[in-house]
Amino acid sequence: MNAAKEIVKRIMKIALTRNVAVVKIKRNNNMPIPSPKGPEQKKDFVSKCMSDSVMSNEFPEEKQRAAVCFSKWKKSKSSEYLPEDEDSDVIIY
Fold this sequence. Notes:
Blueprint: H1 3-18, E1 22-24, H2 42-51, H3 53-58, H4 62-77, E2 90-92
Antiparallel strand pairs: 1-2
Helix pairs in contact: 2-4
C-alpha cells in the first residue's frame, strides 16, 4: 500500500472514532480550487467559490461543493492548518 493510501486509511479510522465528517472527493487536478484573495470576507469568498464554473463541474452536489469551499476558507485563514496539497483527495471538516 502506498503512503497516500495509508494516510487516507488512518484518517478514516480516526474520523470514525471521533464522530468527524470526512468527504472523499475525486478531483481533476488540472483545475484549481479558488482561493480567498487578501482580506476577502468569508461570505463573499464562499459565494464566489460556490458559483465558480470549475467548482460546479467538479462538485455538482451543492453540499459537497460547500464543504470544499468552507474548507478552503478555513485553511487559508487558520495557522493550525497546513497549506493545501493540490493532490489531496480528502477534506476533513
